[in-house]
Amino acid sequence: MQIEKRAKDIDAKILELLSREDKPVSTRDLSLRTKFSWHTVINHCLRLQISGKIEGYKIGNLNVWIKRKI
After folding, report:
1. Residue 69 DSSP symbol
2. Distances, alpha carbon 59 to alpha carbons 7, 8, 65, in Å
3. Domains of the chain: which residue ranges?
4. pLDDT of amino acid 4
């Protein structure tokens, strides 16, 4: 299905960006870099966090994300 492929592409792009970073990246920065809406990025980040691929936490009022080290 086309929707599943798009979701996997978004996940892959988020994971690729996070793997290149040494420090946590905010949802807003991910949104600006991937050209996807903030809402799309936060939904995918939360799903990736649940699946154990990334870690997320809050700094002040920002959600930040980092790729999980295996």
Report:
1. P
2. 27, 28, 10
3. 2-67
4. 81
What is the bridge-based pairing of β-strands 25-26 and 54-59? Answer: unpaired
Q: How far apart are CA 36 and CA 54, in angstroms?
A: 18
Specify the fold of 2-67.
Answer: Arc Repressor Mutant, subunit A (1.10.10)
Cα 19 to Cα 37: distance, rounded to the nearest angstrom? 20
Q: What's the CA gap between 32 and 55, in Å, rounded?
A: 20
pTM, entire model: 0.90
Residue range 46-61, pLDDT digits in tens? 999 999 999 999 999 9
Q: Hey, what amino acid is at 49?
A: Q
Structural tokens at position 18:
């996070």
CA dihedral 29, 30, 36, 37 (to 10 degrees): -60
